[in-house]
Amino acid sequence: VAIFFNTPDDAFLNSAYLSELWAVKDLIRIKNLFPKNWSTDREQQLNDEVRHARLLLNELKKNSKVIVEDLAFSMQEKIYRKYINLSSYNTMSSSGIVHNMTEARALWIYKTYLKVGNNQEYKDCIVGIIEDEKKHFIYNTDVIDQQDSFFKTAINSIDKAIFRTILPMQFGRVIFNSDNFWKKYYTDMPLIEINRKISLNSESGA
Ligand SMILES: [Fe+2]
Ligand SMILES: [Fe+2]
Fold first, then answer.
1. Which of 7, 75, 123, 204 has the smallest count of CB within 10 Å of its CB?
2. What distance in angstroms lies between residue 196's CA and the mean position of ligand 2's atoms?
């Protein structure tokens, strides 16, 4: 990686660390908004996310010469924010929907890393994290109001568009091994560029 990380693996792990930290921060926000509805399951989930962030940070400290601490470089901010601010919701049910989406994507991202990553120590660390995440889907689903299906469909569509179409179009099928992807990820610029010509054409066609 041409930027400050030695390997795409370090760049990947730092983004995973910040994305776990984003989950911690967002769960604390919801806990403070709805202290009476905060279950022991969700407290467990919060503690798990704190532990995940710490595990990943410890790996980074051992392996990487630099560590980025700014949450602006979490995936929730860096990848999704252009389309949706994932922390702008304010109901308990929405928290279940948002976290189910981000955790499903995290699971996919972690499993992808197990296949394409090059650092065995990072892989060992991630295997432990994956086990916890499976329980979190149950905890999230418990707080979801079935009336919220429109919101659920909307953010799941955004997520799929980003990971199945937009990112692969720009960075190829294995985005996490793309130097170009990580170079863009750790700049102040938006990661996702929309081809201006295409978007103007489609607008004028409407
Ligand atoms: Fe986690
Ligand atoms: Fe989780």
1. 204
2. 36
User: At 156, is the secondary structure helix, strand, or coil?
Assistant: helix
How does pLDDT run across 163-186, given as a tens digit for each residue?
Answer: 999 999 999 989 998 999 999 999
Separation of 26 CA from ligand 2 center, angstroms?
A: 12
Q: Which two tokens stand for residue 55?
A: 């595990």
Dihedral sign, Cα of residue 25, residue 26, residue 27, residue 29: positive
> Do 7 and 1 meet the contact criterion of CB atoms below 8 Å apart?
yes
CA of 136 to the centre of ligand 1 (A): 9
Q: Which ligand is in closest contact with the Cα of 44?
A: 2
Judge whether 53 and 67 are in contact, CB under 8 Å.
no
Q: What is the pTM of this model?
A: 0.91
